[in-house]
Amino acid sequence: MLKKFNSLLLIILILFAGCQPEDLVDPFLDDDPDDSGSKSSISYKVDGELIQGTFSEDNIIDIGSLTGEVIKSTNLTNITIGGAILKNSKMYGIVIYLTTDKTYDQLKNGDSFVGNISNLSQLTFAGFGIEDLIDDTVFSSSGDEDEIENQNLVVSITKIDHDEDIISGTFSFDAHDEELNLTKKITEGKFTNVFLEEK
């Protein structure tokens, strides 16, 4: 599971590393063509530096991608949110992965989830990466279980529309790069109006 997760984070960074700002396209328009005028966004601070992107039908600011997926079953719900943002010649990639033993319809505003890799029905972790497109250096959060276990991850749902499959929420966590022996603090995270494609 963790290897698959790290691969997803790496794919997000690679997909957008070769893009120019005018090439960056968000998939929301194709996923929800009738929802004209709605805006989706993600923002967070990395060691105090604000990283943000906003998508609307006629305007893309900084953002390369913002996607959501949901798997609904009778006894588990899995939600994955991933985003990539180009800023100052750097690509910032983030993935939030949460599983709960609540059904999708039971999820509600105010539900919170903490980092957990010891219980498959409450598996919750996050990944983060920065690729510098100029000097080709990469910071990537470790796939080491000890590092993920110590992320201090908190994800909260602030709004969920079960009929339209749209979710908003907040998050914060510590991202560790084992090879570089660095930790970056992800704070004040917020995703808004993310469309969840059912898998």
TrEMBL record:
It comes from the Bacteria. Residues 1-19 form the signal peptide. The keyword Signal applies. Keywords: Signal. This is Lipoprotein. It comes from Algoriphagus chordae.
